[in-house]
Amino acid sequence: MADLDVLIVGAGISGLGAAYYLQREHPQKKYAILEARGAIGGTWDLFRYPGIRSDSDLHTFGYEFKPWRDEDSIAGAGKILAYLKETASEHGIDQAVRFNSKVIAASWSSEHAHWTVEVEKNGERETLTCSWLFCAGGYYRYDEGYTPKFEGRERFGGQIVHPQHWPEGLDYAGKRVLVIGSGATAVTIVPAMAPAAGHVTMLQRTPTYVLPLPAQDPIRNLLRKVLSEERAFALTRRKNILQQQLTWRFSQRFPQAARRLIRRFNAKLLPEGYPVDEHFNPPYNPWDQRLCVVPDGDLFKAISRGKASVVTDRITTFTETGVQLASGRTIDADIVVTATGLNVQAFGGMSLTVDGSPVNLPDTLAYKGMMLSGVPNFAYAIGYTNSSWTLKVGLLCEHFCRLLAHMDAHGYDTARPVVADPGAPTRPFLDFGAGYLQRVVDQLPRQGERAPWLTSMSYFSDVKLLRRLPVVDSELRFSRSRAVTPVIS
């Protein structure tokens, strides 16, 4: 008998959501959440850089089962973390979290139909057993951000900071700040630091699509005045889901029109004569990489006020006082912020073994975007890259609970995805051009060219697949181990 029915890894937004669905649908099952850090909240507790916020609206980024009540639709980390803590407390999920517990390895035994999980807790090793292992820790390393090698970095006389390791109390008042990067982190930090800093420069190698959106949702705030909080939230959530999906589909089908529209929004908020095409016109199509959202156009306002600027160029070398660029230009700085991205790490870096054989992730295929071929009773939660992360996580958790119910009803203890045609064509785990994924694409699982081996990025397709269609599939094999006594009815 395993110690736990389900072991959830990660106490961030995905892990807390998984726990809610599990205890709602299967209150009889015993579960625990292992969290490598000392607090819940994941990303929203880890990052402490100025201005950190969501880049999705909280009516879709939040949970379907818990209305987002704050007036801000795009909210800062403090509000999001309070929301997650409140959710965990309301449902007693916080009592199931075991902190400072990092999963090192997990080995599956088909004979006993359970995982043996090796955990490092406060420097000591312990083992747990579970019938199901559910990884909800996202896909990046929490202990280490990505910084490329910069020539001459050691010569720089100022301070270099990575957003993932922001020093408490960093004083940047009146100072020259150089932010290297152009992604969601960079476009958040620049307008947040600009009011107090002397000047903030965002240095990018390649432009990114930046889309201004209202920080507050006027339609939602109007609905709150005439409807109940729950009804207003439900209608706003549906509206925003539809809006996200239509925006993505429009960008996929009419990329040039989408490009022109985004450019028009940018030009309207920037000073007359500003070189929009140099700094905000990427060489790729919209949604080949994630769009960056700026609430109320705060980045463009900082530029217009002269408190921030954008430079599109490449660093040749650091100098004692800043950086020298390929164009020959130099930028002096007191503080350099390397907003250069994440280090991707699949499943928290744990090693997996099935019946004594190590699992090589690139040899596996993603099943329904939530399991791995050949790996029994193992599920994971990876959200959308083209809309709110949590939309997909919620659907995956629902499907997972339906899968458990099916197994209980038929006396199964093992579910193993098996590819019917191992020689079929495959493609990368996620159809996404972000650099942080491209750096490790050969270390990740793959996906197929057809269902159920596709990792869908369409919410409406996933509603059909994960919520409405049966969990039974010809390529998901159910069984009962010999170590389990058959149920006699």
TrEMBL record:
<dbReference type="InterPro" id="IPR051820">
    <property type="entry name" value="FAD-binding_MO"/>
</dbReference>
<dbReference type="Pfam" id="PF00743">
    <property type="entry name" value="FMO-like"/>
</dbReference>
<dbReference type="Pfam" id="PF13450">
    <property type="entry name" value="NAD_binding_8"/>
</dbReference>
<dbReference type="GO" id="GO:0004499">
    <property type="term" value="F:N,N-dimethylaniline monooxygenase activity"/>
</dbReference>
<dbReference type="GO" id="GO:0050661">
    <property type="term" value="F:NADP binding"/>
</dbReference>
<dbReference type="GO" id="GO:0050660">
    <property type="term" value="F:flavin adenine dinucleotide binding"/>
</dbReference>
<comment type="similarity">
    <text>Belongs to the FAD-binding monooxygenase family.</text>
</comment>
<keyword id="KW-0503">Monooxygenase</keyword>
<keyword id="KW-0274">FAD</keyword>
<dbReference type="InterPro" id="IPR036188">
    <property type="entry name" value="FAD/NAD-bd_sf"/>
</dbReference>
<dbReference type="InterPro" id="IPR020946">
    <property type="entry name" value="Flavin_mOase-like"/>
</dbReference>
<keyword id="KW-0560">Oxidoreductase</keyword>
<protein>
    <submittedName>
        <fullName>FAD-containing monooxygenase EthA</fullName>
    </submittedName>
</protein>
<keyword id="KW-0521">NADP</keyword>
<keyword id="KW-0285">Flavoprotein</keyword>
